[in-house]
Protein: Glycosyltransferase
Amino acid sequence: MNSVGLSAVVPCYNEEASLPELYRRLTDACRLAMGDNYEIVLVDDGSMDATWGMIHSLSIEDDHIVAVKLARNHGHQIALSSGLEICRGDRILVIDADLQDPPELLQPMLKVMEDGADVVYGQRTERKGDIWFKRITAAAFYRLLDRLVETDIPKDTGDFRLMNRKVLSVLLDMPERHRYIRGMVAWAGFNQVAFPYARDERFAGETKYPLKRMLSLSADAITGFSVRPLKLASYLGFIFGAIAAMMIFYTIGQWLFFETVSGWTSLITVVLVLSSVQLLVLGVIGEYLGRLFIESKQRPMFIIDRVVVGGVESSYSARIEDRDAAKSDPLTKRAAE
Structure:
């Protein structure tokens, strides 16, 4: 099994309505840019519709399709990680199945990479189809993240990007389970260049990132790249500790020089404020401890059920061995080697 010039990695979850158009447009874009020297890795993330059957059929019809079926739903970032682990390309395009990120941008992105970029990341100038609430919260999140983290993570970007094997090798050596891949790629460094584009509306189906998953991804981004929330907890403890100390002096002064009156309202207010801050601090600490607990288990990041290439069953381990054996350039080998 030889390496290829380009791998397009696409995580898919309940995307039966988008898959035919995705296959057509992405295949056309890959052929236009790379001729016959490409592969498309479609990862089924435990879909509950006909997604896997369609991916499997495409792999039989087209030798360029690598069909990967995960044993269960692992989530978008883990599904993407499994595709990145298994792909063989010297250059890797990361794109979602909903066609909000146009596959036709591949060729101009390759031109930017040919000028010396190691990563070409899509930066959204417009978000067509998104409701006002999502636009506002997304903009606020990226700016909050910029203030909290030490890593320079570009604003208004998703996972849509093109990177070379050198950058992917660094990414694959990062073992964390709570993954925020766009931040991990930014942390890796190298020459990263923005590619402005207008994001289209979703082609079909509904978003796989409702509010709950967006909040979870936001937590992964913040806790994965910053310890400032822990420092914030300490600051809040100092601030309210100082307020409590002033309240003690105030209470003593009232008792010494003025007639004391039972202040149920003020007492309950102070108790509620201090209790809320304590719970907030414990919650922040618990969030980090919980993630450390998950990481300490060292369970596999994902479980692959099946890999089908050209209609032929393969195995995950054989795929990895063949991929690594095809790499002869030291820049394309894993850093551990």
The chain has eleven helices and nine strands.
